[in-house]
Amino acid sequence: MRLQRIVGEDRAIRTNIYLRNALLGTAWSSRLEFPPGFQFGAATSSYQIEGGWDADGKGPSIWDRLFHSAANSGYFNQTGDVAADSYHQWRQDVKAAADMGLDFYRFSISWPRILPTGRTNVVSPAGVRYYSQLIDVLLAAGIKPVVTLYHFELPVTIQDLGGWTNPLIVDLFGEYARLVYSLYADRVDTWITINEGIVICDLTYNFGQFAPQIKEPTFAPFLCNKHVMLAHAKAYRIYDEEFRAKCGGKVSIANNLLWVEPVTPDDLELAELGRQHSIGRFSHPIFSKEGGWPPTTEKLMRAVSRREGYSQSRLPAFTDEEKKFVQGTADFFSLNHYTTSMIRPARAGEAPGTWFINGSAELNAVLEHPPGSTYGALDIMPIYPPGFRRLLNWVRQQYGDVEVFVSENGLATSGTNLEDHIRVDYLTRYMEQVLLAMEDGVRVTGYTVWSLIDNFEWFDGYNTKFGLYEVDFEDPARSRRPRLSAHHYACVIKHRRLKYPESCVQERRNGRR
Ligand code: BGC
User: Fold this and answer.
1) In the beta sheet, which residues pair with residue 194?
2) Which of 60, 114, 333, 485 is at 20 to 30 A from 353, Cα to Cα?
3) Strand blocks (E) in 151-239
4) Whose CA is closest to atom 12 on ligand 1?
5) pLDDT, position 355
């Protein structure tokens, strides 16, 4: 929904708040407030904000190599070389987080910034110092660091050995994780090992656009899937055995959960298969009672592989030992959620849609957007808030009464736009669904906006903006300015509810708080 600007800024803001409250009015009850202890935060990732791509001896990642290649240099002519320059401007990020009153800031560590060769033979003192300072200054500002070890930035040296399709990655990731814990676990108590296996494996290898730009949809997504599970488990177990007693923190993996609905009641079973294929493959091995792949996915992959003439399933089996190694390796359920899709069988002659739920090639299904969807700047992400509540309930139904942490949720806009009413509206409506799911009994303990600041949105470049804070990419200092959504989020945090006194945003805008 887009709210009209009336006459003058103030009036527009008041109207926005009025409409927002009216909109919430129907489903809204005064009980729907965030409980004490609920944590609010915002997230970024290293390649998307840091810049300093080769500063102080940082090694190249697969993204540096990709955007420096001749084939990709014409792509908007944009790279993450400077991005929001958070490698130098990180104090501005801490200030933004503090201004909004965030409880935590989720950022990621660049593997090749800490380990330029990808291995622990060379540790970069500058890289170590960079994150150390960031952590210290966040803590001094009363903001908890939530640290992701891997947000798509593989050192090229490891890619050249096959990256996530080579089982060697399990030990290499373990080594890297151990080193990072040894540096920061005294000050960081919430860890996310790997961000979005489905992007690293399925999105990457099915299309061959994301780094490392290898298109091999037959085996690579599934080999990668297995190794992501094992690498995560390795990092979890290292924390558990070597750091937990001293540091007492928590570790999980952040999966991207697309909610899948059936187009017609006949597609109910297909929708569930779709969820298992996209969510279950990255969650079931860790969170289910039985461990291993979701049984329906395993069966599907066996049948598809047999039909294709393979003697074994393209989904590689876990040994019993591996199953046990992965099972139970999370202290909470961390999920990124943006959107909902509808699923139906592909018609004769129709190519199966293979966007996010990349298994739809195996499922022989097509994804559609919910009818009447509205959009931000990305037409692959329809806005459909009710899907979020259903998804959260599904997680509980599948994996039991697990603690749920929303590690990403947000909306893209484009161009210069400090008056991001559409983002205010998106965040409000999605947070409302979180509250409703909590009323249903889902144990959600935290919520994270993607993103703290505008950043490099991969192949969508700099014109696609996810930030609560706008970044001026023309300004050498990459100055940051709060959008309306930043004020809104700050007011939600301050009042711990989505409905707050209208004066809150005004006072923030006038610099009075
Ligand atoms: C990823 C981010 C990305 C965001 C918006 C998430 O799936 O973790 O890296 O910027 O989506 O597309």
Assistant:
1) 150
2) 333
3) 190-195
4) 457
5) 59
Class of domain 2-340+374-508: alpha beta
Residue nearest (by alpha carbon) to ligand 1 atom 9: 45
CA angle 102, 103, 105 (to 5 degrees): 75
Contact 359, 278 (CB under 8 A): yes
| 454 C-beta closer than 6 A to ligand 1 | no
Choose, from 196, 261, 322, 470, the residue flagged as catalytic: 196
| DSSP character at residue 462 | T
Distance CA 139, CA 95 (A): 12
Q: Render pLDDT for 127-171 as a digit per residue (tens, 0 to 9).
A: 999 999 999 999 999 999 999 999 999 999 999 999 999 999 999
| Residue 399 to residue 189: CA distance in whole angstroms | 24
Residue to probe by mutation, ligand 1, list 381, 450, 456, most atoms within 8 Å of CB: 450
Phi, psi of 165, deg, nearest 5: -90, -5
The pair of three-digit structure tokens given for residue 503, joined into one six-digit string: 């004066």
Ligand 1 pocket test: which of 47, 48, 408, 468 has the largest number of ligand atoms within 8 Å of its C-beta?
Answer: 408
Rounding to the nearest 10 degrees, give the CA dihedral for residues 484, 487, 493, 499: -60
Establish whether residue 450 lines the binding site of ligand 1, counting it when its CB lies within 6 angstroms of any ligand atom: yes
Q: Is the CB of 204 under 6 A from ligand 1?
A: no
Phi–psi pair at 263, nearest 5 degrees = -70, -45
* pLDDT tens per residue, range 171-221: 999 999 999 999 999 999 999 999 999 999 999 999 899 999 999 999 999
Q: Report CA-CA distances (Å) from 49 to 116, 452, 462.
A: 19, 10, 11
Which atom of ligand 1 is nearest to 199's Cα?
Answer: 7
Cα distances (Å, whole numbers) of residue 141 to 44, 144, 494: 18, 9, 16
Q: Is residue 322 annotated as a catalytic residue, yes or no?
A: no
- Which residue's CA is the nearest one to ligand 1's atom 7? 256
**pLDDT tier at 23, thresholds 50, 70, 90:** very low
In 468-482, which positions are buried (b, 16+ CB within 10 angstroms) versus exposed (e)? bbbbebeeeebebeb
Q: What is the Cβ-side half-sphere exposure of residue 144, based on CA atoms within 13 angstroms?
A: 15
For the chain, give every domain's residue range: 2-340+374-508
Amino acid at 360: S
Q: 3-class secondary structure for 232-292?
A: HHHHHHHHHHHCHHHHCCEEEEEEECCEEEECCHHHHHHHHHHHHHHHHHHHHHHHCCCCC
153 is catalytic: no
d(CA 240, CA 328): 12
With 0.85 as the threshold, say if the pTM is over it: yes
Average pLDDT of the residues in 86-108:
98
